[in-house]
Amino acid sequence: MQMQGWIFDLDGTLTVAQHDFPAIRRELGVPLDEDILEYLGRLPIAERERLNRQLDDIELRLAREVEPAPGAAELIRELHRRNVRLGILTRNLHSVAMASLERIGVLDCFDPQAILGRNDAPPKPAPDGIHQLLNEWKVAPSEAVMVGDFRFDLEAGRAAGCHTCLVLEDNPWPALTDVHVPDCHALLARLPG
């Protein structure tokens, strides 16, 4: 994959997935079948702000314990060495993304402006964050790839018109996936020499 722009999801893609979403839903009082951010977005302002602060605290606590996904640091370092554009588009907070990237040892590979959290752009599956990064980089969607571990990542990539790469053992979304690899080691091995 020879792309000029690489946009990565964070949790479950570059870091070992650690969010226990059913437990987070229970802690926040979000119905088990609801998307957390969408549910919170529909609440009255005072309740939304209180629960968003609680969610922020949960995510900041988890960021202190984050571990790199297999091959993630090596992949990011190699892409950085090749001088491609690197970005993060996450449904986490910007501060959580920064702390997580620092903890896995690759924060220095990213321009802080290219790390977008849920308050920097509408959350995935909206493609706005991808468009924002590509416009900033002056990179065409056809020269970029959205890399993630969930359908929201793939849907955002498709909606933005860029390539999609699923990093997950199985592929439950083949219609949304251009490249499928089980982990970042495998993605690194697919980079052209």
UniProtKB/TrEMBL annotation:
Q: Matching InterPro entries, A to Z?
A: HAD-like_sf, HAD-SF_hydro_IA, HAD_sf
Q: Which domain of life is it from?
A: Bacteria
Q: Could you identify this protein by its name?
A: HAD family hydrolase
**Organism, scientific name:** Halopseudomonas pertucinogena
Lineage, uppermost ranks: Bacteria, Pseudomonadati, Pseudomonadota, Gammaproteobacteria, Pseudomonadales
